[in-house]
Specification:
With 66 residues, the chain is an all-alpha fold. It has one domain. The chain is built from 2 helices and no strands.
């Protein structure tokens, strides 16, 4: 069940798209545009969450060092 063997990873694994390595396979052909949109939204959510976490950590560090 990985993209290298040609299997349909995004259809087999409902958590597909939540790992940074999945970005490497994002642009390979999908079975449907709906699935591409779903995975894209999932990846965008992950990126936004990590960005918010990073901003909070940096904000705390700045607040603690002043």
């Amino acid at each position: 069940m990985n993209a290298a063997d040609g299997s349909d990873v995004e259809a087999d694994d409902p958590t597909w798209g939540t790992s940074p390595k999945d970005v490497l396979y994002f642009w390979r052909p999908f079975t449907s545009l709906d699935r591409r949109a779903e995975v894209g939204r999932k990846m965008l959510t992950v990126v936004v969450v990590w960005f918010v976490i990073l901003v909070v950590i940096v904000g705390l560090l700045v607040a603690l060092t002043n």
